[in-house]
UniProtKB/TrEMBL annotation:
Keywords: DNA-binding. The keyword Transmembrane helix does not apply. HAMAP family: SSB (MF_00984). CDD domains: SSB_OBF. The lineage of its organism: Bacteria, Bacillati, Chloroflexota, Chloroflexia, Chloroflexales. The keyword DNA-binding applies. This is Single-stranded DNA-binding protein. It comes from Chloroflexus aggregans (strain MD-66 / DSM 9485). GO terms for biological process: DNA replication.
Length: 126
C-alpha cells in the first residue's frame, strides 16, 4: 500500500452561481473574477420525515485569462465545476483594529456544465 506523506490543498465543487460574476482589474491591470457558488449537502429530516438539504455558499476567484472567460460567459444560475485550492486572506480592519479573515477558492479550472448564452453573445444575431 502506498502512503502519502505530504499535504494537499485541492478543492473540487459542482454548483450554481448565485449571482452574476464580478469582473474587475486590480494592480498592474491584472483581471480578477469573483463569484459565489451554491452547493447542496444533505441536512436532517423535516417535520414530515422528508430529507432536507442545506446550501453552502463558497466564494470563488479566478485570475487573468480564466477570469476573463468566467466574467464574459458565466451568469447567475449557470452550473459549473470549479477546481482549485483553498486560500485565506488575513488583514487588520482599519476602523476597528480587529483581525479579519476571508477564505475562498482560487480556481485553476472552471468547467461550464450547462448550455446557455454568454454575456458577450446575448445581443448577437446570426
Amino acid at each position: 500500500m502506498r502512503s502519502f506523506k505530504g499535504t494537499m490543498n485541492r478543492v473540487e465543487l459542482i454548483g450554481r452561481l448565485g449571482a452574476d460574476p464580478e469582473l474587475k482589474q486590480v494592480g498592474n491591470g491584472v483581471t480578477v473574477c469573483r463569484f459565489n457558488l451554491a452547493t447542496n449537502r444533505p441536512g436532517g429530516n423535516d417535520d414530515q420525515g422528508h430529507r432536507t438539504s442545506e446550501t453552502e455558499w463558497t466564494t470563488v476567484e479566478a485570475w487573468e485569462r480564466l477570469a476573463e472567460v468566467c466574467g464574459n460567459y458565466l451568469q447567475k444560475g449557470r452550473r459549473v465545476m470549479v477546481m482549485g485550492s483553498l486560500r485565506t486572506d488575513k488583514w487588520q480592519d482599519s476602523e476597528s483594529g480587529q483581525m479579519r479573515w476571508r477564505t475562498y477558492v482560487r480556481a485553476d479550472e472552471v468547467i461550464f456544465l450547462d448550455g446557455g448564452v454568454g454575456r458577450q453573445e446575448e445581443g448577437d444575431e446570426e
